[in-house]
Structure formats: C-alpha cells, structure tokens
Amino acid sequence: MTPKRGADMSLLHINELRLAMQSYRKETEVLHGISLTVERGQIWGLVGETGSGKSLTGLSTMRLVPSPPGRYLGGQILFEGEDLLQADERRMRALRGRRMGMIFQDPTTNLNPVFRIGTQMVDAALHAAGEDPSLLGLAPGAGRRDMRRAARETAIQMLAKVGIPNPESRIDDYAHQFSGGMRQRVLIAMAMIGKPDLLIADEPTTALDVSIQAQILRLIHDLVLERNIGCLLITHNLGVVAQVCTHVAVMFRGRVLESGPVAQVLKQPEHAYTRALMGAIPTADTPRGGLRGLAGVDF
Ligand SMILES: Nc1ncnc2c1ncn2[C@@H]1O[C@H](COP(=O)(O)OP(=O)(O)OP(=O)(O)O)[C@@H](O)[C@H]1O
C-alpha cells in the first residue's frame, strides 16, 4: 500500500491513540489518547512508572499488541503518513526489521540459544534486504548465495560497529558465549542491520550493570544520531532520559502528562508528577536511602 502523502509526513506521529485490554471478563482502557511526534535525529524518552502504558505504546507502534486481548478504540499511528492501525500483518512484517527495529530489555529472550549469532544476523539482514540485492551492496540479479555472503559481511561490519571485538570469529559463537552487555550489543546490531528509520528500545539497559548501562546508552545515542533516524526509548528512569534523550514524554496512567525537548521539560517541569520523578533521580549528593518513592502518590 502506498502511504497517503500530505497530512502528516513526520517520521512517526501517534495521534490520540486509545487502546483497551481485555482481562478476565472485563475490558479496560489503558491508553487514553496518546499523542507523540518523533522526527529523524530525535531520541524520545517515554518515561513513567510501571503500568503507565510505555511498553504498550512502543508495542503498538510496531503493531505487536496481540488482539485479543488488545483492541484499539481510536486514533492513528502514522509512520511517514501511513496509518499503521490500518495496515495488515503482511505489511507490518515488511516494515518490522526493515523500516523499524526493536530492542528489548532482556537479550537472552530475544536471541535464540540454539543458533549461532551469525545465523540470526544473516537471516535478519536477508529479511531486511527482501528481494533487493542492492540493499546488501550487490548488483541487481545477484543470486541467493551472493546475498548470503554479503549478508554475513554486513553482519560482521555491524558487530564491529557496536563494539564486539574480533567480529569475524565471534559471529560464529552462540548467545551464551557473550556477557550480558555484549549480548545487548549483539541485539542492537541485529535491530540496526536492516537500517531501520525508527528504533524502539524498551528498557534496553535495565538488566545490565550500571557501568555497562552507560556504554550501551551511549552506543544507542551515537547510532541514532549518526544515521539520522528516530528513536523511542522506553524507561522508568528519568536519569536515563537526561543522559541520552533529546525529547521526553512523561506518561502517567495511560496519558502523556507533558512532553517536549529534554532541556525544557527537565528545567521547567509543568507537572507535579514530573517534579516527583525528578526527585527520584539519584545525584552525587543523594544520601543512601534518601530517594523518595512514588508508590501510591496520586497526580
Ligand atoms: N496483556 C495484557 N492484558 C491486560 N492488561 C495489560 C496487558 N499488558 C498490559 N496491560 C495493562 O496495561 C497497562 C499499561 O501496561 P504497560 O506494560 O504498557 O506499562 P509500562 O508503563 O510499560 O510498565 P512497565 O514499566 O512495568 O513495563 C497496565 O495497567 C497493564 O496492567
């Protein structure tokens, strides 16, 4: 389907998105009209406490919320003007891995333990290239074998890019042979191999040691800006937002409370909830046990 041009050609424009989830005998609205616009070169932090709807917003963008239990009640998800709520599964499969990449919290659940890293990356690169050899730097008419070879070459380059030492030999290792931080780098390489225009990262560093977290966030930041793509970074940690994001949307109970450039929102938060989240960022001066909890606070 050719996207309709005109109305909104932002990279991603989520417009008044409403989603309900069915759970035992009852349907509950969980996203109450989310609006958000992501342009190239922007890293949007989606921040908020657990259950505020961050992951469902990210998953909706990739149309990965299963239905049932999910049901969209209204709104649009415009990807370069094409409404993904109207797209069929075939169209979404073509977009995922090619135009959109996703990184999840726990790399172990997203890397298949049975296959070598290289096999999974080559498959991802071939999926992204589809029938078009030029996407792997090959001339038209290149055969499957040439495409495989080029895909492996691309995978090695991508592993080098995300900082895996000796990628020519490490590509033939299995996921369990990598440390947690290295696995997350491999997952980033896999998400980026199809040269996506939009990257969605859901708590990509939560499972990692603090020292490794900063490196991985820096890597995502640099890749997004270098390739001039857009990124949605889902986190419950406003400190992460302050570290790498250009923009932030603060979510609370299925709504965006406030959004805008990070410098602006963090400097002059309009909402008490944002101020409370900021109070939860540890600083060098924070005494042990001195962080304020937000549980039970009603905004
Ligand atoms: N499969 C599901 N069935 C029913 N309700 C769900 C389902 N998945 C999520 N929800 C509900 O939707 C709301 C938003 O969930 P979501 O996972 O998007 O929150 P989140 O902000 O990403 O939280 P977390 O930081 O814990 O991942 C929550 O109230 C959650 O209970």
Automatic annotation (TrEMBL):
Keywords: ATP-binding, Cell membrane, Membrane, Nucleotide-binding, Plasmid, Transport. One of its GO terms (biological process) is peptide transport. It comes from the Bacteria. SMART domains: AAA. InterPro entries: AAA+_ATPase (IPR003593), ABC_Ni/Peptide_Import (IPR050388), ABC_transporter-like_ATP-bd (IPR003439), ABC_transporter-like_CS (IPR017871), Oligopep_ABC_C (IPR013563), P-loop_NTPase (IPR027417). Residues 12-278 form the ABC transporter domain. Belongs to the ABC transporter superfamily. This is ABC-type dipeptide/oligopeptide/nickel transport system ATPase component-like protein. It comes from Ketogulonicigenium vulgare (strain WSH-001).
